[in-house]
Amino acid sequence: MIGSIVQENGYIDYSEEVVANIAGLSTMECYGVVGMASKSAKDGFWKLIKSENLSKGVKIRSKNNELIIELHIIVEYGTKISVIANNIIQKIKYNIENYTGLKVSAITVNVQGVRV
């Protein structure tokens, strides 16, 4: 459980994987993102993740009932990385806060590669 919301009728608990999937899907909707990246345990290199495992490129921590999200992405060559990162941050914060009701305190976007 990464976060929970207390309502008058009970609790809503969110698992880390659910929030990571929302963040991964939100990231893939942004222009200029080729995909999520995951570090290969075998050789230590970053590799492109297939669309069914998007949560592997997302790390989520909870501190004081607020989420801290870390993303690892691969971007398209010729795009402005700062604009892409800003769009990702805004989209993820909006989607997670609206879908779940949890607060997001920080989002870190790590660009692990550029693809043509």
List the helices and strands and how they pair.
Layout (H helix, E strand, L loop, with lengths): L2 E5 L2 E5 L1 H13 L4 E7 L6 E3 L9 E6 L2 E11 L4 H20 L2 E13 L1
Parallel strand pairs: 6-7
Antiparallel strand pairs: 1-2, 3-4, 3-6, 5-6
CATH superfamily: Cation efflux protein, cytoplasmic domain
Major sheet: size, sense and barrel closure? 5 strands, mixed
N-to-C span: 38 Å
- Give the SSE order as H and E letters: EEHEEEEHE
Globally, the shape reads elongated
CATH class: Alpha Beta
State which percent range the strand residues make up: 35-45%
Structural class: alpha+beta
Helix content percent band: 25-40%
Overall mean pLDDT: 88
Low-confidence stretches: none
- How many strand segments? 7
CATH architecture identity: 2-Layer Sandwich
> How large is the radius of gyration?
15 Å
Per CATH, what is the topology?
A: Alpha-Beta Plaits
The number of domains is: 1
Count of alpha and pi helical runs: 2
Family: Belongs to the asp23 family.
Pfam family, one: Asp23
InterPro entries: Asp23 (IPR005531)
Organism: Clostridium luticellarii
